[in-house]
Amino acid sequence: MPAYSEIEALIIDTVTLLAKDFEIESLDSVTAESPLYGNGGPLDSMGLVNLIADLEDAVYEKFEASITLADEKAMSAHKSPFLNVRSLSNAVQERLMS
Predict the structure, then answer these.
(1) 3-state secondary structure of 43
(2) Residue 77 pLDDT greater than 70, yes or no
């Protein structure tokens, strides 16, 4: 099981690459508190779909684990796991543990 810091670093790297591809200036300096989707987040639905796909691939490449981020649990959660980097890191860690 990877350390939380490794998961967060992978997400920051993935978000940074996506921000460059989509030219999202508000994500130039990504931190754990950076908003992603909803509540002032800079990603639209297409950006979110791309982030999910990129992150699932990155998790598989780095940790040799297959996860699904856009599942029933994520969509029905009281608080979206896609709000910011920290909430997404928690969701990835949770899926890697199960």
Answers:
(1) strand
(2) no
